[in-house]
Design a protein that fits this description.
123 residues; alpha+beta; two-stranded antiparallel sheet; 8 strands; globular
């Protein structure tokens, strides 16, 4: 991540950096891993919180980061995350696209089908 943006890197391209952070290939393939601007790593639901905060993603008109940290909701999300992470491939692509919008490679201005992409924010 750099310059205030969000860079998505495939696990295979980031294996060396993940290993240096003590994150195994299997962990990275199972759980979302996020590195912040200061170089700190986060995994699982904590990584989701960091990503949503960085991207300023809003749910129901409220910052998702704030919602994800409400008492009891944070605990429930921490419990639910591993279940959904292991079954994320079962979520239909159209639902993901509806919820988050398309992911574009900014450099190519086309849908991202590679491992190195930038998220295009919806206006």
């Amino acid at each position: 991540m750099g310059g205030g943006g969000i860079t998505i890197i495939s696990v295979s391209d980031g294996q060396n950096e993940l290993a240096q952070a003590g994150i195994s290939y299997q962990e990275a393939m199972t759980h979302l891993c996020v590195k912040d601007e200061c170089g700190a790593w986060y995994k699982g639901m904590e990584a989701v919180r960091v990503l949503y905060k960085m991207a300023n993603i809003r749910l129901f008109g409220v910052g998702a980061f704030w919602l994800f940290n409400l008492p009891m909701i944070d605990v429930l999300l921490d419990i639910a995350y591993p279940y959904f992470a292991k079954r994320r491939h079962l979520i239909p692509a159209y639902l993901v696209k509806w919820w988050y919008g398309a992911v574009y490679d900014v450099r190519l201005n086309e849908l991202c089908d590679t491992g190195n992409c930038h998220i295009y924010s919806k206006p």
